Backbone:
């Protein structure tokens, strides 16, 4: 069952709510004022907050306002014996899911708690109806290097934001993968490798991190790629966050070729983190304030945008929808501009910009600061330059089933893009979107 924060200065009322929820199996944390509630939110993640409207000092509305300023989308249910229609309107404007008037019935509270227990499923509305993205289980494969440490921080931030479980996995390559002559003696060496990995995991994950989110550790021996794919399937992973060593230090059996392999095989989004320079140390929680979604504006663009828009909402980030018109020698008809001369860049850019704006409008990105931009130049370098110049901290791209980036990259592989990016890159496998997204018709 989920975790619920109950905020009320009246101990009798607070204890009553706690007993109702605990009998149903919920884990309940209590706070008697706004300050203690905010402190609890820094230390733990919750699926729902039940908050009294009128309290001494700061009110429930003050708490709700401060909660939204720290970019949390946690569902909040207001309760009050004094609130009127205007108060309820203000609460809903700040994002409250509703208001219960005291005294309320036990089942009224449970109906709402049960509905929002799985609050890691975010909902948005667009032209097809409702889109729900699932971020309930996040996997971070680690080899205890600087890139995987950085990836862990991003995974922790996402898990906290979406109230997801974080699985941290280390896979030691089986010695049989190296030399068949090792024989049975390799078993002892593999056990030593597991013991060492267990020690590193205990140091890798701080006690503070375990307080913030639910963390599960896994140790495996075998083929690294195969074991990770099995974990993704067995644990119903919704997102993978992993480090990449980039050009300078490819690890043959882990976060080098393994990253590329997983991008080709994994049916869920993969967030790849690289270039862990000291000057780009990750804050905690890791911030996403400016997100760039690069697309070839094909029919799959709307799938990726739906996912990206939900991330932007969750982190209150600015969203840029970016398309590039490439240099001579490339396929100018990828986005469809019949009758336009191949070298008429102005006409090509205008056509592409109109399409981007249509996509933004149809996806109903209300509540998000969003813009559409078309740039001229080689796709790979143009996108990289824009990400750097705009101070973006996340690049999102669609992946096709063959493992190459959609035609916006014009032949560049995902591995090349990720290695050269100085910000995390989220690759969305649009062909398997039904696994991590749900589309329903509008009522």
Residues:
């Amino acid at each position: 069952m989920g975790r619920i924060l109950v905020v009320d200065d009246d101990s009798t009322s607070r204890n009553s709510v706690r007993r109702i929820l605990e009998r149903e199996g919920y884990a309940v944390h209590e706070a008697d004022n706004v300050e203690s509630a905010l402190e609890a939110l820094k230390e733990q993640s919750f699926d729902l907050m039940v908050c009294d409207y009128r309290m001494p000092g700061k009110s429930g509305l003050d708490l709700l306002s401060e909660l939204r300023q720290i970019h949390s989308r946690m569902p909040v249910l207001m309760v009050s014996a004094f609130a009127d229609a205007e108060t309820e309107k203000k609460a809903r404007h700040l994002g409250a899911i509703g208001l219960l008037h005291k005294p309320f019935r036990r089942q009224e509270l449970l109906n709402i708690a049960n509905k929002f227990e799985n609050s890691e499923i975010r909902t948005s509305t667009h032209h097809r109806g409702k889109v729900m993205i699932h971020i309930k289980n996040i996997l971070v494969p680690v080899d205890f290097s600087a890139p995987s440490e950085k990836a862990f921080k991003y995974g922790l931030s996402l898990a906290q934001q979406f109230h997801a479980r974080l699985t941290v996995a280390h896979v030691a390559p089986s010695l049989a993968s190296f030399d068949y002559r090792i024989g049975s003696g390799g078993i002892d060496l593999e056990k030593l490798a597991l013991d060492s990995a267990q020690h590193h995991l205990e140091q890798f994950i701080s006690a503070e991190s375990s307080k913030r989110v639910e963390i599960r550790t896994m140790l495996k021996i075998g083929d690294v790629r195969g074991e990770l794919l099995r974990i993704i399937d067995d644990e119903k992973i919704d997102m993978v966050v992993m480090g990449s060593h980039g050009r300078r230090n490819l690890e043959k059996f882990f976060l080098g070729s393994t990253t590329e392999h997983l991008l080709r095989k994994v049916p869920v989004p993969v967030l790849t983190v690289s270039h862990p320079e000291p000057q780009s140390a990750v804050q905690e929680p890791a911030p996403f304030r400016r997100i760039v979604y690069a697309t070839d504006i094909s029919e799959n663009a709307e799938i990726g945008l739906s996912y990206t828009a939900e991330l932007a909402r969750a982190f209150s980030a600015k969203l840029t929808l970016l398309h590039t018109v490439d240099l001579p020698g490339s396929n100018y008809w990828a986005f469809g501009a019949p009758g336009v001369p191949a070298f008429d860049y102005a006409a090509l850019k205008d056509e592409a910009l109109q399409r981007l704006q249509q996509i933004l409008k149809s996806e109903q990105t209300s509540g998000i600061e969003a813009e559409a931009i078309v740039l001229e130049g080689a796709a790979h370098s143009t996108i990289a330059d824009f990400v750097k110049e705009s101070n973006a901290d996340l690049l999102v791209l669609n992946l096709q089933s063959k493992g190459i980036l959609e035609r916006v990259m014009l032949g560049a592989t995902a591995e090349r893009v990720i290695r050269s990016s100085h910000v995390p890159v989220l690759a969305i496998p649009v062909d398997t979107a039904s696994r991590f997204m749900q589309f329903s018709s509008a009522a």
